[in-house]
Amino acid sequence: MKRIMFFATFVVALIMISCNDDDEPQPQNGDIGKFLIETTLLNPDGSSGSSYLQLIPELSGEIDNSNAIQLDFSSPIAVIDNDVFIFPTFGTAAVNEIRKYTYKTDGTLSSPETLPVTAYSTPTNITRINNEKAYVPMYGIGRVLILNPATMEKTGEIDLSTYAHEDVSAEPACGLVREELYYLPLNQADANYMPYENHRQVDVAVIDINTDEVLKVISETTSQMSFPTRPMLKNMIFTNEQNDLYIACAGYFGYNPAYRENGFVCIPSGKTEFDDSKSWDISNTTIEGTSYQPVSVFNCKYIGDGKLAAYVGIAELANNNPYTARNSMPVLIDLNVKTIKPIEGIPVSNGHGIFIDSYNNLVMFGSDGENEVGFFTYNPATEEVIHVLATEGAPYFIHSFE
Prior knowledge:
Elements: E1 35-42, E2 49-56, E3 62-63, E4 69-71, E5 77-80, E6 83-86, E7 97-102, E8 113-116, E9 127-130, E10 133-138, E11 143-148, E12 153-159, E13 176-178, E14 181-186, E15 202-208, E16 213-220, E17 237-239, E18 245-249, E19 263-267, E20 280-281, E21 296-304, E22 307-313, E23 328-334, E24 339-342, E25 356-359, E26 362-368, E27 373-378, E28 385-391, E29 394-400
Parallel strand pairs: 3-28
Antiparallel strand pairs: 1-2, 1-29, 2-4, 5-6, 6-7, 7-8, 9-10, 10-11, 11-12, 13-14, 14-15, 15-16, 17-18, 18-19, 19-20, 21-22, 22-23, 23-24, 25-26, 26-27, 27-28
């Protein structure tokens, strides 16, 4: 069994147990509203604490966790339509089950339905294939659970052990469906959850969604980038307007100075192989107006016209505790002209606050900054940044039921 050690920003969905590890999380009512929010209160070590899920009516002011549902520490969340899926803490979870709440018309959450999972199996995300079928990668055991999301019943499994490097799990991360094929990046991590030094490449399983058959595993070996996507961050794999599929690669998260390669690889539209000429290692690109060069892509969101909102790792801002270091810088990345520039007004964050997603015509960032904590909106057209909601604890997730 791989031991649970990690590096800076993988802690947002990983590790250990909640601060009350002898007690089951006690659910509250979750309140009422159209915005679903998860926050995490950290212990001083930064690698443990408690997380909370709640609904609020509007994005303004400041919120606490008094009406929230307590979750296991940094539990990953995914939303499909009105269904809210809660996954176990990455690694040693106190609760080994997938939990599903349903958002109701009165603005509240239903009682949860559950599906028990094996300890250390580590499901982290879900991709809907149709209303009765979804794929759930099981990071810890190297399989894909086939789930009926409507009934919360297991209907099958895809075994990826054949494709693992030096162990039994290829660490399937976060996938995407394009043209009837499920592209599933494989992290291929060693006992410390870092890329193998003798396997610095990007592996992706290509799976037929009609037969659940692994057609092949493709690899990009030219750039020496590694760790394609992070298993709880769905936007690190995406398609652009031309239907080219891009994958963000975290590499060594900036914690091995010998291997800084990180950035983006591409599987062009209509192809099922990488185009090495479209790979971009961003580690040698200076962030405009600074002396910094990114050592990792921590999270990103494609926002159109070749541009991404992202958090990147800055080695110079790291400290001796990777769980508390505020070395996650918000930036705008342009894949077309190969530039990176800071987004002013959003604080540099630690790894517990690196949420990014779209909200109407804006981009929503979560940041656990030194002086400001909560959710920020960024307008790509005007570059305006607004701190719309202050949170009690690191802002881990937000979703709008609109």
